[in-house]
Each structure stands twice: as C-alpha cells, then as structure tokens.
Amino acid sequence: MTPSTEYRFSFGPWNICEGKDPFGPATRAPYDHEAKFALYRPLGFEGVQLHDDDVVPDLDQLSGPQILAKATQVGTMLGNQGLVPEFVAPRLWFSPETIDGGYTSNSAADRRYALDRTLRTADIARAVGSKAIVLWLAREGTSLRESKNAVTAYQRILDAINAILDHDKEIEIWIEPKPNEPCDHAYVPTIGHAVSLAYASKDPVRVKGLIETAHALLAGLDPSDEMAFAIAHGKLASVHLNDQNGLKYDQDKNFGAANLRGAFNQVRVLEENHYGSRGEFVGLDVKAMRTQAGNPVTAHLASSREIFLHLVEKVRSLDLKEQQQYIDARDYEGLELFTIRHLLGIH
User: Fold this and answer.
1) CB contact at 8 A, 101 and 141
2) Do β-strands 141-142 and 185-186 pair in parallel, antiparallel, or remain unpaired?
3) What is the reported pLDDT for 4?
4) pTM of the full predicted structure?
C-alpha cells in the first residue's frame, strides 16, 4: 500500500499526570506545564491539546485583555518550541456554575456562564494560534431523566453551537462525544449525534467531530466504524486514541494494549482514507499507570506512538490482493486467520 501521509501526533498536558484517580491520591509529584512543553518534540510529538485554563489559569478572575495577553504569550512560547496548539477546550465541568450542566443547566444564569466561558475559549484559541475549540459535553446530561427536558436540552446545545459560530466566523467546533461519566446519561453520546448537530447548525462545514477510542467502546460501538462514519461525512477533525478493557470507567490505556486487532482496524480506517493528509493530528489520550515511578512519566506516550506506527506498517504491508481473494470467495474464516497471522508476523 502506498503511504498516505506522515503522521503528526499530539497529546495534552494532562496526559503527564500525578496518578490521582477517584479512588486514591496522587502517586507522583506535579510537573510544571511549561516544563511539559519541552518534552513534546523529543518524544516525537508536535501538537498540543489544551484546555482554556491550561492556557490562562484562573481565567474567570481576569479581564478580557488580560486573558488575550496571556494566551498570546503562551502561543509565542509554543511557537518558539516548534509546537502547534491543536485545539483549546472550555473546561466546563469544574466550575460551581456547571454542576448541573453548562449549556443544558436548568439555571439560566449558569447557562449564560457556560456560553460566555466558551466564547472566551474561542478567543483564547485564536490568540494562542489554534483554529479549533473542542466541546467535550461532560456534564451535559442527567443523573435522572426526569430532571431535564431532553428536547429542550438538545435545542440549547444547538443554540450554543450557533452562538459560537456567530461569535467567530472562522473558528471550528469539534464535538467529542461520550455516553457517560461524569453524567449517568450524557447528551450527544455518539458521533452520529454530533454529526446530526453539525448538519443542524447554521454553518455545518465548521462543526465536526473528535472520536476517542474509549468513548466509542463505552457506548458499545466499534471505534473504527465510528471513525468511518465521520470520515464518510467529512467530519473527522481529530482522534484521541487509547484503549479500554471492557465497558467500565474511562481507562485511557495505552493504544492497542487491550485490543490489538481493534487498534489495527482503527489505524486501517485512518490510513486507507488518508487521514492526516490535511494536517489532522493523531491525538494520544493515554494516562500512565499509578504504579509507574519517576517524574515525569512519559513511557505511555512513547509506547502508544510506537504501537500506532507499528500498526501503520502492518496496514501498509498487508497483501491486499490476497485479502481480496478471501473477500471475493466469502471465505471469512480464511480472512480472519489471514488477518491474525499478519498481525502475529506469521507468513
């Protein structure tokens, strides 16, 4: 297979973490954000995923000009290190105003806060040098269905998307779906919901999707099929690759660590459809195990990138003629063994 692209990789500062989880405290000392940026290039990463308060800490206490000045400063710092800010996401799940959701809160004042903060995020993205914001609709959902009117909630999300599009005529909105956690039931749980919102918006070209492996698995779906659906609609703006051991909490395991064949098929869909040829990044949203000693811990990022590149070579070295022979004969038993032998390196 002719290589479609040379891939560029990204991750977020939160992927170099202290090991804290809902059931235990940190197991490693904090590591400064600016020091993390110096680690990207040596690890083979060029893109930086960001939250709004990764760029501008305590932004709710700052004026508009102060926010833009800090964002511009961070953009210059990233550029000096040869790094590209892939996107900026509003962190709408930590604030007291968002405990009942942001755009879908039952409080009008809280909905106003969520939209205002998102508009500031769009300004931050532009100032830092990014073309996109990501909406992970973390608390846009319910703990019990009777607490919100779902039709109203979906309209409020669409209204927020349209307001962002009106605020900045060039910014792109990338919706990152997830079916649950922290909400019991989340609105916009799959890429299909995200694409529908894109088409319903006033500028569908600028509304796209970001697919995370684990989020698709938590919805009981195949991540490669979700990616294919988004690609078919021209809506796959980015991916967050990781892995997941069953329908549990969001685990952010190393890519390919739990299901190597599933990882192969994700890479296959991306490779066969020339993902990355328009500048898209391969995001690796993985977290180090709490048991890992050292500071900073980055082996999980290097390992996931290495596994991805190995699987790229597996896709590119696949004998497509032999594969097609199995397909034409509808010999899917033979096709399965052929695929597994290829992954195992058995010829």
Assistant:
1) yes
2) antiparallel
3) 53
4) 0.96
Residue in 162, 69, 152 with CA at minimum distance from that of residue 115 = 162
**Are 215 and 251 a contacting pair, CB within 8 Å?**
no
33 sits in which H/E element: helix 33-37
What pLDDT score was predicted for residue 34? 86
The residues, any chain, with a CB within 8 Å of residue 278's CB and separated by 6 or more, are none
d(CA 225, CA 231): 10
Name the strand (E) or helix (H) holding 133: strand 132-136
Burial of 25 (0-12, 13-18, 19+ CB in 10 A): exposed
Distance from C-alpha of 68 to C-alpha of 79, rounded to nearest angstrom:
16
CA 200, CA 186: separation in Å to the nearest integer? 19
The H-assigned helical ranges of 129-233 are 150-167, 191-200, 213-218, 223-232
Top CATH class of 8-316 equals alpha beta
Backbone angles phi, psi at 317, to 5 degrees: -95, 5
Catalytic residues: 51, 54
For the chain, the domains span: 8-316, 319-347
Place of tokens 């206490």: 61
Spans in the chain with pLDDT lower than 70: 1-5
